[in-house]
Specification:
The complex is a heterotetramer, with 1 copy of chain A (229 residues), 2 copies of chain B (80 residues) and 1 copy of chain C (574 residues).
Chain A lengths: L2 E5 L6 H12 L4 E4 L10 E4 L13 H4 L2 H11 L4 E4 L1 H8 L6 E3 L7 E9 L15 E8 L3 E3 L2 H9 L3 E6 L18 E5 L5 E4 L17 H11 L1
Parallel strand pairs in A: 1-2, 1-3, 3-4, 4-11
Antiparallel strand pairs in A: 5-8, 6-7, 6-9, 9-10, 10-11
Chain B lengths: L1 E8 L6 H12 L5 E14 L4 H16 L5 E8 L1
Antiparallel strand pairs in B: 1-2, 1-3
Chain C lengths: L5 H6 L4 H11 L5 H10 L2 H4 L4 H4 L9 E3 L6 E6 L2 E9 L1 H6 L1 H17 L4 E11 L7 H19 L3 E8 L8 E11 L14 E6 L10 H4 L7 H4 L8 H15 L4 E6 L4 H13 L2 E5 L12 H6 L5 E6 L4 H10 L3 E9 L3 E6 L2 E7 H6 L28 H10 L7 H4 L10 E3 L6 E4 L6 E7 L2 H6 L1 H18 L3 E10 L6 H21 L3 E7 L3 E2 L2 E2 L3 E10 L23
Parallel strand pairs in C: 4-5, 9-12, 17-18
Antiparallel strand pairs in C: 1-2, 2-3, 3-6, 4-6, 7-10, 7-11, 8-10, 9-11, 12-13, 14-15, 15-16, 16-21, 17-21, 19-20
Helix pairs in contact in C: 7-8, 7-11, 8-11, 11-14, 19-20
The chains are: A alpha/beta (229), B alpha+beta (80), C alpha+beta (574).
Bound molecules: adenosine-5'-diphosphate (ADP).
Chain lengths: 229, 80, 574, 80
């Protein structure tokens, strides 16, 4: 599995995801600077976490206009899988590859902690190594993770199975206390219609190594490896 | 020529910042505040001096970057 | 230039004796720019004039110490060819004025001290003191400071892995915000400040210079116009995004062979950075101020030299590398300007619009900075309390509950959850334990880091309090399985011109020295913050200690959580 | 009664957001933008109907919460 990690000015989880991709797939990902206008042939494109352009104006907004994103949008259109983590998710919504927006957290505070997520379906490139309904523990670290979309849009996403993850209690209960940021319907991650593009706020790359206290995040990279090799 | 762009959230879009201000004001004992919405004010100094040109120029910037037209409206005001 | 009256001198914080020395060094009356330069170079902050005598008594050597106090940060050998570079620094006053920006720029400043030396920052910590929780301003200050530390550290992508917080009414009008950064560098590639080589170019990189935080200046001169108040905010605003670019750009440039000396522009900006670089290398320097990238029009030489705009660096390059270096800075969208060159004159000559606007000797100014042996009185010993004489509380369960809920003991989770403490994916022990454990990427090792001080001990008995802070730091590191290696300190005290306060300072140093000696735990960097007083009431003496230790096998560490039912619980020690 | 509060950075205060927007606009090939400053726009619905009262009320909110007067200025506009 050959992956490209896009590096924007202000990306800061680019190395973290590079390490995880390398560890899981054994293949060195290519790191692509945002000013590049072309991309080599890759099986997966990753938009990493961080604060591209300082999160100024709107998080992800300026990065979504960078040169390389034109190519990313084109590839996504051609079916190349794209994974956006945290700031990467914000870039994906700003570029129109995913519906909705990520607003400031409801309590206006940055939040960094482990949360529990329910994997809504195992029928995707990104989640095949998980069980449907499985609860996994993965950290979040963001200021703008409050997922918003109109009620109709949310119904449509649910109807299409485009909700990838929801914030839940450790026992799987779906309640407001499990929601770290005020997201609509506890949504932590969404797919595009074809389920080839995934954006999520939590950082699976941060719990993919037992020495760091957990490996629940590894499943996502293993799923991709199985699906794309 | 100067332009001021006001970017505001569309009706029905969640506004966590406005909500938080509303709460904070009432915690500070300011009464009679019924709703608060927070938007952005972006001031631009332009080399363009023709108002019509400037306006269409700034509108293009809004569409492309300054506002997210899925959730935001913008209005443009020109000065001098 | 305006006249140098006794008032103008006083507004620049120089006393009569000091001004006499200025006249001797200059051989003439200084102009306002030159006076401003003396003023910042001889400020307590830059010259350590009250504390130097005592700081010199701290142990600073050990086989693993690569660079002790004197450079931008301390450097220790941590094995496998790597060095840990670290320092702690205060941003107390600015954080009281504007908690968010004050704390944020404090983090920015300490990060620069570390990456200036060629180290990639891998961990931030902080030591915070606030007034009583009931005090009207405390809530606002706490939330602003915590948000500011997070806002900056989270954005630059360096995890904030630990810290400490205390509340005491003595900090009501003088909060303490001490920030610490730890970085990693190859042990044989440490960058220093010394400028070398006549004719070599002096380079400015980073953000543009604005009228930020110009000291004493507002009142000092009639040439500032009426709305100068409005024009001269004393608060600097941080731009963590630019700092992140600056880290990456500097580290990229440091991989080449182009840099001779490099120094961040911290407090007193261009003045102290250029003086320090020239003085350390025994050089002279000529700066062409027309070349300084400015954010605003019409900036005067005085403003440029004294500005405290953030996210800027000064460097001396080997000749012929300018274009390559410019290319790297431009890739990262940073300003780059050749603003001068080194000379053999031993003087700093400042030019603008073709005129010489300032001309000062470097060494006399740097070396003749005042050093005081301030009078001090020992802190009177307090009566020892015998635990036996205290009443035994009836309901211990209730007491425990009270203790756990008290401001100084309750959980700090609400603070560290606002900090990204996991970015870089090497935080093995997150906040909440005795010390943070951060893996040394690419090795099997880890660093253990903690900040410690118990000010109420220090006020009761400065020497024992100082020793206790060092010992606690040592214990916190050993508790996670690390070998403690060295410390940085941040000495926060009241007005040193008062003998009782100076006595607290001397006492704490004495205790720290004793503990450092006993534990072979040297001090490799530090910072002093004095005059923390409001209306004659000083803060508790607060010598914050930042300790760093190494764990050779990161798989072998211990945490604080009980992990197994039925396991034995042991109590060791006295 | 509605009030609009404009909160802007004081002169000379660094505006990292404005600076970044300026860069982004020029990267998007928008020319002739000399300076960009970003501020806030806060819209309040008030139950107060007396303009004078409303203004002094809102000014108090600005001093206390809406603006950080160390680095920001504010102006108030009333409508209806
Ligand atoms: N300001 C802070 N920032 C980050 N972490 C903090 C802060 N204050 C406390 N912590 C963390 O909370 C835990 C408890 O702190 P403290 O009570 O000071 O520890 P100690 O047991 O050393 O007295 C530590 O792990 C510390 O790193």
């Amino acid at each position: 599995m050959k992956a490209a990690v896009i590096v924007f000015p202000g990306s800061n989880c680019d190395r973290d995801v590079q390490v995880t991709l390398r560890d899981v797939s054994g293949v060195e990902p290519v790191m692509v600077w945002h000013k590049e206008s072309s991309l080599e042939d890759v099986d997966l494109i990753v938009l990493p976490g961080g604060f591209s352009y300082g999160d100024y104006l709107r998080s992800g907004a300026m990065a979504s206009k960078s040169l390389v994103m034109r190519e990313v949008v084109k590839r996504a259109g051609a079916g190349v899988p794209v994974l956006g983590i945290c700031n990467g998710f914000q870039v994906l919504t700003e570029s129109g590859l995913l519906p909705g927006v990520l607003m400031r957290n409801a309590n206006l505070k940055f939040v960094c902690k482990d949360v529990h997520l329910k994997v809504e379906s195992s029928q995707s490139l990104f989640t095949s190594a998980y069980e449907a309904g499985q609860v996994v523990r993965i950290p979040v670290a963001h200021h703008d993770g409050n997922y918003f979309a109109g009620e109709d849009e949310l119904d449509r996403l649910e109807g299409n199975g485009q909700i990838a993850f929801r914030y839940v209690q450790p026992d799987g209960a779906l309640d407001p206390d499990a929601n770290p940021n005020g997201s609509a319907r506890n949504i932590a991650g969404v797919y595009n219609e074809r389920k080839t593009v995934l954006g999520l706020m939590p950082h699976p790359e941060r719990l993919a190594d037992p020495q760091l206290g957990g490996t629940d995040g590894k499943g996502m990279f293993q799923s991709l490896l199985e699906s794309l090799s | 020529m100067k332009a001021r762009v006001y970017v505001t959230l569309k009706n029905g879009v969640l506004d966590p910042q406005g909500k938080a201000i509303e709460h904070a004001l009432s915690a500070l004992d300011f009464q009679g505040v019924e709703q608060v919405r927070q938007g952005k004010l972006i001031e631009l100094d332009l080399s363009e001096s023709d108002p019509e040109q400037a306006r269409s120029h700034v509108a293009a910037m809004c569409e492309k970057l300054l506002a997210n037209t899925v959730i935001e409206n913008y209005t443009i005001e020109l000065a001098d | 230039m305006s006249e140098i009256t006794p008032e103008v001198v006083a507004e620049h914080g120089l006393n009569e004796t000091e001004y006499q020395r200025v006249l001797e060094i200059m051989g003439r009356e200084p102009n306002l720019l030159e006076l401003g330069i003396f003023s910042v170079m001889w400020s307590e902050h830059c010259s350590y004039k009250s504390s130097k005598k005592w700081l010199k008594t701290l142990p600073t050597e050990a086989p693993h110490v690569i660079e002790g106090p004197g450079e931008n940060a301390g450097v220790i050998d941590i094995g496998e060819g790597l060095a840990a570079v670290f320092k702690m620094e205060s941003h107390n006053h600015p954080s009281f004025i504007e908690p968010y920006q004050g704390a944020a720029t404090g983090v920015g400043g300490i990060l620069r001290d570390v990456f200036t030396m060629g180290a990639r920052p891998i961990a931030n910590l902080n030591a915070l003191r606030f007034g009583s929780p009931e005090h009207a301003k405390t809530r606002h200050l706490v939330s602003g400071v915590v948000a500011g530390i997070g806002g900056y550290g989270n954005c630059v992508g360096v995890p904030t892995v630990g810290g400490e917080v205390n509340f005491d009414p003595s900090y009501n009008g003088n909060i303490l915000v001490n920030a610490m950064t730890v970085g990693l560098a190859p042990a044989d590639r440490i960058f220093k400040a010394a400028a070398q080589g006549v004719g070599n170019p002096v380079i400015y990189v980073g953000s543009k210079t604005g009228r930020d935080g110009i000291h004493g200046a507002t009142m000092a001169s009639a040439e500032f116009d009426d709305d100068s108040d409005e024009k001269r905010p004393t608060v600097q605003v941080g731009d963590p995004f630019t700092e992140k670019l600056l880290i990456e750009a500097c580290l990229e440039l440091m991989e080449t062979d182009a840099i001779i000396g490099i120094q961040d522009m911290g407090a007193a900006g261009l003045t102290s950075s250029s003086f320090e670089m020239a003085s350390k290398g025994g050089m002279g320097v000529e700066l062409n101020l027309d070349q300084v990238p400015c954010r605003e029009d019409g900036m005067t030489p005085y403003e440029m030299m004294l500005s405290e705009s953030q996210e800027r660096m000064l460097m001396v390059l080997k000749p012929g590398n300018e274009d390559m270096a410019r290319g790297i800075m431009e890739k990262w969208d940073l300003d780059f300007a050749v603003i001068g060159s080194l000379t053999e004159t031993g003087r700093m000559v400042l030019r603008m619009h073709g005129d010489v606007v300032g001309d000062l000797p470097i060494d006399p100014l740097a070396e003749a900075s005042p050093e005081y042996d301030r009078p001090w009185v020992p802190t009177p010993a307090r009566e020892e309390l015998d635990a036996k004489d205290l009443p035994v509380p009836g309901d211990t369960g209730k007491v425990l509950y009270q203790l756990m809920g008290s401001p100084n003991l309750c959980s700090r989770r609400w603070i560290w959850e606002q900090y990204d403490h996991m970015v870089m994916a090497d935080t093995q022990a997150r906040p909440g334990g005795d010390a943070a454990v951060v893996r040394v990427h690419g090795t099997g090792r880890a660093l253990a880091i903690s900040t410690d001080c118990t000010p109420r001990y220090c006020v009761a008995d400065p020497a024992r309090g100082g020793a206790q802070a060092v010992a606690e730091s040592w214990r916190n590191l050993t508790a996670v399985g690390a070998t403690p290696l060295a410390i940085t300190d941040n000495m926060n005290f009241g007005n040193p011109e008062r003998p009782e306060i100076m006595g607290q300072f001397v006492g704490c140093i004495e205790g720290m020295r004793a503990a450092c000696d006993a534990l072979a735990y040297p001090v490799v960097s530090g910072n002093v913050s004095l005059y923390n007083e409001t209306n004659g009431a000083a803060i508790l003496p607060t010598p914050a200690i930042g300790g760093v230790g190494v764990i050779e096998d990161a798989a072998k560490t211990a945490g604080i959580a009980f992990t197994e039912e039925g396991a034995d619980i042991l109590l060791i020690g006295e």
